[in-house]
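Q: I'm writing a short explainer about Ubiquitin conjugation factor E4 A for a general audience and would like to include a description of its predicted shape. Could you first generate the structure from this sequence?
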Amino acid sequence: VPVHMPITTPAPDTLRCIPEFVLENIVVLITMARRTVGAITEEADIAGLLQPALTLVITFMGDSGRTYNPHLRARLAECLEAMLPNHPDDQQPLSSLASFYREQLFKEHPHRLQLVSCLLDVFVGIEMTGQSVQFEQKFNYRRPMYLVMDFLWAMQEHRDAFTRLAKEAESNMEAVHPPIFLRFVNLLMNDAIFLLDEALGNMAQIRTMQTAQESGAWSSLSAQEREQNLSNLSHIGMLARFDNILGRDTIRTLVRLTAHAPYVFCHPTLVERIASMLNYFLLHLVGPNKKNFKVKDMKEFEFDPASTVLDICRMYVELGNNPRFCAAVSDDGRSYSPQLFTLAETVLVRIGGGGLIGSLQEVAARVATYAEQRQRDEEILANAPDEFLDPIMSTLMLDPVILPSSRTTVDRTTIARHLLSDQSDPFNRSPLSMDQVKSNTELKERIHAWIAEQRRNTGQARPTE
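A: Of course. Here's the predicted structure. Afterward I'll give you a sentence or two in plain language.
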């Protein structure tokens, strides 16, 4: 029976009678076959047995109406990874013929263009289950998805699928239900911040413990205490390795997307987050505290700070033509300083990133211009009345809106950013979507009148960013 995607007919009631373990067994078969090369021989590839298997995966992975369990849908994404041709992480490579047929599967399968949207839907679905999903479990689910996305990105028609979803997101940034690409990008940034922060914290702990061990401080400890320290060092090292691998995959995905769809990242909903994230990690990796993360045998922990610095600088360059992004970089009072990019240039020379320096200097000059304006604005607007400040971010509101349930007033960008991860009122947990918020027109007029008055008093006519 031919299958037409996307499937628009409702799932039959009889599907409810089929236990989940039937699908789970298929997942186990396909994934184990990849890990034990020879369990499914290349004759199976030639016979086209993987094509109906891919149809099954797309059907159930991409439709929560047919597969309610988000964990099972995530396991189906593992099947996609098991169907890939040879990739760098393979311990037992497939034969050239088997690898060729698998590559053709993703180029010729009649429903291949559903893959990208299905993947993003599952990626987001793991976060939005409403259940308590352990970080390690969540990232273990996402690891195969990164490998599949990496493979698909090399094919133009799949890259075009990312582009279509990005343009849909650009046109619907404040829709009642945020577009899947927008939620995906938001979660990528959440993951990158968490993983890199955890990784750097663990690397600093490892350095402290290695320094104590080498200095002889451990020699005065009892045998039991030394054994405990070694066990702790091993455990922290394992966590650091996990965070570094997943952090690297997440950052590289962001590098691709910022180059391909910079307009999404520069929207007011996301631009402050991406700017502050880049500033924070660049400062840690090129600033005065970078030696805190230098440990013995960095490869053992999959720690590659040079690669991360290059990736971060590439994102600055890709986004740096947008005035809103440059303004957001300069507005980050926590990590930005005029010396930040100078420090980065020094490191780039040493790690082979000289080709980025010219473009990064142009970005730095644009950011510096906004930083000067920001300093003047801070002096003018420093004494804003409390009612003009966003209750979550403590920043001056430019577009205040009223939340219908709690009746709290917040800035529009603040609540839009919150709703990407949590569709509820942050003050009382009531369900909330962007179409329900109401502009606080009276307060907005008073805020902008106050800003204009402050500028007149100091002779500035330029509007605030």
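A: For your explainer, you could say: Confidence is low (pLDDT under 50) at residues 461-465.
Q: Perfect, that's easy to follow.
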